Amino acid sequence: MHRIIRLRIRGTPKRKINKTVPLTRAEAETLFGPGVSRSSRVTPFKVVAAQMVLSLCATLAWWLFYSPPGAAALSAFLGGAICWVPSALFGARLKAKSGAETIASWVIGEAIKMGATIGMFVAITYGFKGVLWVPLLVTYLIALKTYWIAMAWK
């Protein structure tokens, strides 16, 4: 029995050691350009503002091109709000905790953001009987993709 255990241990593959070395500042500037070390111009509140603007543009589009426009525009506005209200809460939490950021603080902020998003979806589902799901979800996804635009804008 003792011999079987030894054979299994010897038969396991050896672990590979990660020998990745991070780039120095000079190497990073050579690869990505001189602006790589400057801080981002995109703040959480700029992202929230962009989400609000895109939500309002999508709401206007639903108002102009959907018949009847009222319920579609309201649903689109609510879909956008489902995205930017939790983001604004997260941004406000970051600003309040500035200088004291920890991983736990970020995780709690994300949990609040997810809880607010789910809560708003549930509240709209049960509280607004005339919701049109296509405008709501399309506008929500448009506002949600603002993060990708913001990362590219860096």
Architecture overview:
There is one protein chain. This protein is mainly α and 154 residues long. It has one domain (41-153). Helices cover 73% and strands 0% of the residues. It is built from seven helices and no strands. The protein has helices at 2-11, 25-32, 44-65, 69-96, 103-127, 133-144, 146-153. α3 (44-65) packs antiparallel against α4 (69-96), α4 (69-96) packs antiparallel against α5 and α4 (69-96) runs parallel beside α6 (133-144). It is elongated and about 60 Å long. The mean pLDDT is 84.
Nutshell version of this structure?
This protein is an all-alpha fold and 154 residues long. The protein has helices at 2-11, 25-32, 44-65, 69-96, 103-127, 133-144, 146-153.
User: What structural category arises from helix and sheet content?
Assistant: mainly alpha
Please state the CA-atom Rg, rounded to the nearest Å.
24 Å
Largest β-sheet summary = none
The ordered H/E elements are HHHHHHH
Query: Number of domains in the coordinates?
Result: 1
Low-pLDDT sequence parts: none
What amount of the residues lies in strands? under 5%
Measured distance between first and last alpha carbons: 61 Å
Shape: elongated
| Total number of beta strands | 0
**What count of helical segments does DSSP give?**
7
Mean pLDDT, as a whole number?
84
Q: Which percent bin holds the helix content?
A: over 70%
